Amino acid sequence: MTNRTWSRLSTRERQGIVLGGVAQFALAGWAWCDLARRPAALVNGPKRVWAAVIAVNFVGPVAYWRWGRTATAGARRFSR
Questions:
Q1: Could you tell me which residue ranges the Cardiolipin synthase N-terminal domain spans (predicted)?
Q2: Domain boundaries in the chain?
């Protein structure tokens, strides 16, 4: 793989990188806000560990949404 500078990337490549970064930060921010507001009893494991996991690219926030939260009464009501 060849190292290329930002100025040598095409417009489409730049847009893709920026869009990916925005999506990553949006997912992480959404997960961190949910984690901060969610009581510790409704989180699978320590909140500090999940806060660190969320910082890992796209994998962290997705893992938090999938395995980090416990089901609440409201979530069970909508899953029918």
A1: 27-69
A2: 10-73
Burial class (CB in 10 A: 0-12, 13-18, 19+), 50: buried
How far apart CA 61 and CA 69 sit, in angstroms, is: 11
Which residue is listed with tokens 């949404």? 65
Mean pLDDT over residues 10-35, rounded? 95
Is residue 28 a contact partner of residue 54, using CB atoms and an 8 Å limit? yes
What are the angstrom distances between the C-alpha of 55 and each of 24, 58, 63, 74? 9, 8, 11, 27
pLDDT tens-place string over residues 41-62: 999 999 999 999 999 988 999 9
| Cα-based distances in Å from 20 to 27, 32, 67, 68 | 11, 18, 23, 23
pTM of the model: 0.75
What's the sign of the alpha-carbon dihedral 33, 27, 25, 54? Answer: positive
